[in-house]
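Subject: mismatched residue count in predicted assembly?

I count 160 residues in my input, but I want to confirm that the predicted structure covers every chain. Input:
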Amino acid sequence: MTKVLFVCLGNICRSPTAEGVFHDLVRRRGLDTDIRMDSAGTSGWHIDAPPDSRACAEAKRRGIDLSRQRSRKVDPADFERFDYILAMDESNLADLREICPAPLLGRIHLFTSFAPKGAPTDVPDPYYGGNDGFAQVFDLIAQCSEGLLTHIIADRQKHG
Ligand code: 4NP
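Triage response: the counts match. Full output below for your records.
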């Protein structure tokens, strides 16, 4: 079993979208029983809230349901529980690195490190912008998700 955690600031826009997109991809590849995923926020500002309605609408438009997700804060135990911890931007990455036990730092990655060459470094925070920001974020997340799954499958084959 490989466990993946997506992390952003509020856990209501980017990381729930990443969880939904990645889950859809894993399910379509028939890997549902091998790869599990969750998402969390560094801030805890929106604990128990559903994803932002604009994130839900964009995902729904692409056939993905985010409505059952609820926001939670990153927990120190997450660094033990999850094999891959994906930060949506450099700020999330810095916040995660600060609270992660040193031996587990290798589990934390910038999500865009799995995107094709030329992609931006950050999945930009769409919260204060317009609806087109949510569409762009969705596209970038879809690209990162493909790259991440390819990496995980290769890693699982390498390590058995
Ligand atoms: P997220 O977006 O980190 O992608 O969930 C945000 C959601 C809420 C806030 C900032 C970013 N906020 O300031 O409340």
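The chain has one domain: 2-159. Marking this ticket as 'not a bug'.
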